[in-house]
Amino acid sequence: MKKAVVIGAGQSGRGYVARYLYEKGYQITFIEENEELIKLLDEDRAFSIHFYHMDRKPVYIHGFRVYKTYSRQAEAAIADADFVFTAVGEQNLGDVAKQLKAGMEGKQKRTVVITCENGINPGRVMRTHMQNEKIEANYVVSQTAIFCSTVVIRGTRLDILSQNETYFPYDCDEFTDPFDFNGAVPIHDFEKFFKRKIYTYNCLAGLISYCGYVKGYEVYGEAAIDPDVSDTMDQLLAELDPCLMEYFGITMEDQTAFSQKALKKFKDLYILDYTIKNGRAPYRKLGPTERIMTPMRILMDHKKDPSIMQFVAAAALVYWEERQGKNGEPMLEKDPITTFCELNDLQKDDPIVKGVEKYLEKIHQNREHVVIQELL
Ligand SMILES: NC(=O)C1=CN([C@@H]2O[C@H](COP(=O)(O)OP(=O)(O)OC[C@H]3O[C@@H](n4cnc5c(N)ncnc54)[C@H](O)[C@@H]3O)[C@@H](O)[C@H]2O)C=CC1
Ligand SMILES: O=P(O)(O)OC[C@H]1O[C@](O)(CO)[C@@H](O)[C@@H]1O
């Protein structure tokens, strides 16, 4: 039996990765840092994954083990694992590397580490952290990109609601073995593949979540069908799609099919998701290679109007201002514009910063009733 460790037993760890492992009969060990979650997993030893459109029978996951990060048992599980999957958020991979360092000391068998995080190349981020930790054991790093939305079912202890999606694209440039997951698709040049997802699909997700948040929406799909948000997305895509077509060297047909598929999904009210969940970690999403700033720069490089993306950046800053200290969001140590400049290595008089600052003020002035199309 192949042995898999899943670091991070949250929505994707237990609700997405676990079902591929379960289907193929892997031994599953979760490693978690949240003690409350560990307690529930330890007490229940099982949970169900339900599917949004009721188009698949619930999957009942059981027979797994769960350990606290850095515990003796967690280290032993890492030492014994064939595969380690991470589902912790890219910003937490440095800590995962430390856990792997402790668990892989003297390990003989090869470990395949697969990141299940968003980013443009979280696999590389993981590898760099592992190199910095000077892990000497035999390992290869791969990554997947998750197109599947997964949320906890509120009012249950551990149950999950997810899409019936069986598509597991994975980076096959370093991990070259055949891979037995249902829906596994080997992909070369994964960074290009991931960038296309982040700059199209997650760019729209960023717009919906931050604009939806400032407009007072909790449910993501309701934000996506709001005419003000929806018109703003159409306006953005009319300019962004042709730029991305050129940027990625693909056909317009391919690019519009990709962006329209994302829009259709995000407007599907059966796919219950939340603006707060999709907006989490604004400091990561406001970074220079991410879903807001790179599409903004691509638009500018093509002499197109970056205003909508500047508005999204301003909305993300409002989200951060208001959500700091809640659900693990870090405090804003400086004012939002200084923070934005520091994240992106920009001066305060840069036209991008001026644009974001203008929209930040407008959102503040209209905080109780934000109409994007009037403020743009
Ligand atoms: N939930 C979703 O619909 C999707 C999630 N993803 C990606 O999946 C990854 C995880 O996201 P979710 O599962 O939604 O988040 P989540 O917050 O539900 O789960 C993350 C879990 O990791 C744990 N954790 C954090 N740092 C840790 C560490 N250093 N060691 C051990 N455990 C740690 C947290 O306590 C939490 O239980 C993210 O990178 C996200 O971008 C991607 C696409 C869809
Ligand atoms: O942590 P991130 O980057 O928001 O990633 C998770 C999100 O990505 C998505 O797949 C698209 O936004 C959402 O379904 C999910 O909430």
Give a structural overview:
With 376 residues, this protein is an alpha/beta fold. It has two domains: 3-188, Rossmann fold (3-Layer(aba) Sandwich); 192-375, Orthogonal Bundle (N-(1-d-carboxylethyl)-l-norvaline Dehydrogenase, domain 2), CATH 1.10.1040.10. The chain contains 16 helices and twelve strands. It has helices at residues 11-23, 35-44, 72-80, 93-104, 122-132, 190-214, 220-225, 227-248, 252-266, 275-279, 282-285, 293-301, 307-323, 336-344, 351-365, 372-375, and strands at 3-7, 27-32, 46-51, 59-62, 65-68, 83-86, 111-115, 139-143, 150-152, 160-162, 168-171, 184-187. β6, α4 (93-104) and β7 form a beta-alpha-beta unit. α13 (307-323) packs across α15. The mean pLDDT is 98. The protein binds 1,4-dihydronicotinamide adenine dinucleotide (NAI) and 6-O-phosphono-beta-D-fructofuranose. 1,4-dihydronicotinamide adenine dinucleotide is lined by residues 7-13, 31-34, 37, 69, 87-90, 92, 95-96, 116-118, 146, 149-150.
Strand residue percentage: 5-15%
Major pleated sheet = 6 strands, parallel
Cofactors, ions, other ligands: 1,4-dihydronicotinamide adenine dinucleotide, 6-O-phosphono-beta-D-fructofuranose
In the CATH hierarchy, the third-tier topology of the largest domain is known as Rossmann fold
> What is the rounded Rg?
21 Å
End-to-end CA span: 57 Å
Unreliable stretches covering 5 or more consecutive residues: none
The CATH top-level class label of the largest domain? Alpha Beta
Report the structural category.
Answer: alpha/beta
